[in-house]
Amino acid sequence: MNTTTTRLRGGWRAVVRRKTESWPTAAPAVERRLGATEEPAWVRRLLIGTALVFLTLFLFVPLATVFHEALKKGWAVYLAAIVEPDALSAVKLTLLAAVISVPLNLVFGIAAAWCIAKFDFRGKNLLLTLIDLPFSVSPVIAGLIYVLVFGMQGWFGEWLRDHDLKIIFAVPGIVLATVFVTFPFVARELIPLMQAQGVEQEEAARVLGAGGWQIFRRVTLPNVKWALLYGVILCNARAMGEFGAVSVVSGHIRGETNTMPLHIEILYNEYQFAAAFAVASLLAALALVTLVLKYAVEQRVKATMKGAAGEH
Fold first, then answer.
1. CB 231 within 8 A of CB 188
2. Mapped to the 3 state alphabet, what secondary structure does the chain carry?
3. Given CA atoms 25, 31, 36, 37 in this order, what sign does their dihedral have?
4. Can you give the pLDDT at residue 312?
5. Which NCBIfam families match (predicted)?
């Protein structure tokens, strides 16, 4: 099945390549337009310099300040703040929320992207709009909605109380809030790529007798794997750094329902600046690692989308 599908895909690409090579090219005209509208060197330097100044003031300096303040009193104080029981509990809860919410969003993102990119149906635009809802709704409002629905005085409060279940001010509420604010990321990375690739390869595999799972595993997934990883990275970064929605549903119980951002806020409000910046440096380090991974995967995604556009 794998060899036959690969052969068919290669033949299909060759046909498309022969057709596109015969098309007239507009490259000279494009080059002339670019040459005619090229900005003077001083304008480019001014724009680049302005961008560097903003990056320095609003990104590099704050990040450097976090690490400087975290280590200002020495490594002993820094390590003591990190291994403190409440800090370790916050780290564990943050990782737990990410470990649960990211796979859930992975499943949702793949299903939603497949449905939107491969099929036409009524309500498709509505589904796209709903996927973007967490981008437009304040996380605090999302947290309040969960309190209204799952709180002890909420719609399901009596039923939860009767069954000895607790969602708000407990780990399940934190996971729910994290899932809500992060679920657009995977879907939004996959949808454009799947739409650009079309359905020809899946249809060819179906003609050859492949089932739905085989088509996904052997045809679709290899084509979208880098976009999928890119969405997972963004989803994980947002999950670990979420503050607003988690703050509403957590209850701020030290050692139990405080994530890393909440723990940092408590330490800072208590004037424990060294400890606050020590824990903040962990989040900053995660952000830097995420940035590096994001850049590497982004290059792969661009190459994949360019290849998909070249085949159509």
1. yes
2. CHHHHHHHHHHHHHHHHHHHHCCCCCHHHHHHHHHHCCCCHHHHHHHHHHHHHHHHHHHHHHHHHHHHHHHCCCHHHHHHHHHCHHHHHHHHHHHHHHHHHHHHHHHHHHHHHHHHHHCCCCCHHHHHHHHCHHHHCCHHHHHHHHHHHHCCCCCCHHHHHHCCCCCCCCHHHHHHHHHHHHCHHHHHHHHHHHHHHCCHHHHHHHHCCCCHHHHHHHHHHHHHHHHHHHHHHHHHHHHHHCCHHHHHHHCCCCCCCCCHHHHHHHHHHCCCHHHHHHHHHHHHHHHHHHHHHHHHHHHHHHHHHHHHHHHC
3. positive
4. 57
5. 3a0106s02, permease_CysW
pLDDT beyond 90 at 209: no
pLDDT confidence tier of residue 307, bands split at 50, 70 and 90: low
Find out whether 154 and 148 touch, Cβ atoms under 8 Å. Answer: yes
More confident: 203 or 239: 239
Chain-centroid distance of CA 7 in Å reads: 34
Measured CA to CA, the distance from residue 271 to residue 296 in angstroms comes to 39
Q: Is the pLDDT reported for residue 51 higher than 70?
A: yes
Statement: residue 24 has pLDDT above 90? no
Q: What is the pLDDT of residues 275-306, one digit of tens each?
A: 999 999 999 998 888 888 888 877 776 776 66
Q: Yes or no: say if 242 and 261 are a contact pair by the CB < 8 Å rule.
A: yes
What pLDDT band is residue 5 in, cutting at 50, 70 and 90? very low
